[in-house]
């Protein structure tokens, strides 16, 4: 359920905000347009938001600034602490993950996540989307921004490119985590009654906007 990556985020928490602002050259392209990506999620969200993997609270803060209610689910204690400090009590951030989490204090009309869904295997992604499909009402949304590849060849090309640039940590991450293809994500969403569209943000990240039918 992605919890095997908690040690990574415990180590990364202190420098995460620097990474998303482009200070780590290996991940600069993945985070290119980071603020615009978060703003795009906000603009597509309703007013009662369940957020998975808020990390240090960057997307959460933008959602709150837009007048939305947010309930955050974050498995990393270090990330939760940073998010809570940043948000100053304006949103509740609790322990949990994409599949196991406390019930929000409101009926969410939107489920959001940024840069996190790839921590789940395809089987776990499918189970999560099934769970969300049962929870959400008609016309409610899932809005995720994450690394997705157009097809398997594009995924392999990304690994080869990272290696050729000397970005060996990035290449290892691409091989270690669970990055899906657009076709795989489309099949998962449509199987649970969602109409989904994909909007590319940079060479790695796509917004997945799925509306419950």
Shape: globular
The main pleated sheet reads as: 7 strands, mixed
- How large, in whole angstroms, is the Cα Rg? 16 Å
How many strand segments?
7
Mean pLDDT: 95
Please outline the helices and strands.
Blueprint lengths: L5 H7 L3 H5 L13 H11 L3 E5 L5 H8 L3 E5 L3 H11 L4 E3 L15 E5 L7 H14 L5 E7 L4 H13 L3 H9 L5 H10 L2 E7 L4 E8 L1
Helix pairs in contact: 3-4, 6-9, 7-8
Task: Characterise this structure.
- This protein is α/β, with parallel strands linked by helices and 213 residues long.
- 41% of the residues lie in helices and 19% in strands.
- Strands 3-2-1-4-5-7-6 form a seven-stranded mixed sheet, with helices on both faces.
- Helix 5 (77-87) links the parallel strand 2 and strand 3 (92-94).
- Helix 7 (152-164) runs antiparallel to helix 8.
- The radius of gyration is 16 Å and the shape is globular.
- The chain starts with 5 loop residues before the first helix and ends with a strand.
Concise description?
The chain is of the alpha/beta class. The chain has 9 helices and 7 strands, in the order αααβαβαββαβαααββ.
Any descriptors?
213 residues, alpha/beta, 7-stranded mixed β-sheet, 9 helices, 41% helix, globular
């Amino acid at each position: 359920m992605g919890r095997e990556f908690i040690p990574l985020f415990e180590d990364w928490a202190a420098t995460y905000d620097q990474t998303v602002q482009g200070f780590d050259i290996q991940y600069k392209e993945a985070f290119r347009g980071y603020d615009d990506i978060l703003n795009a999620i906000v603009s597509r969200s309703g007013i009662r938001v369940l957020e998975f993997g808020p990390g240090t609270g960057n997307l959460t803060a933008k959602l709150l600034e837009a007048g939305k209610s947010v309930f955050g689910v974050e498995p990393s204690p270090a990330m939760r602490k940073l998010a809570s400090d940043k948000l100053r009590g304006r949103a509740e951030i609790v322990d949990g993950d994409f599949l196991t989490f406390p019930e929000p204090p409101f009926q969410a009309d939107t489920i959001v996540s940024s840069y996190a869904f790839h921590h789940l295997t395809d089987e776990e992604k499918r189970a999560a989307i099934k769970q969300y499909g049962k929870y959400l009402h008609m016309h409610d949304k899932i809005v995720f921004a994450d690394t997705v590849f157009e097809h398997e060849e594009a995924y392999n090309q990304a690994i080869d490119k990272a290696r050729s640039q000397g970005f060996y940590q990035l290449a290892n991450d691409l091989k270690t985590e669970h990055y899906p293809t657009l076709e795989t994500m489309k099949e998962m969403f449509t199987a649970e009654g969602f109409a989904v569209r994909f909007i590319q943000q940079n060479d790695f990240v796509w917004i997945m906007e799925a509306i419950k039918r």
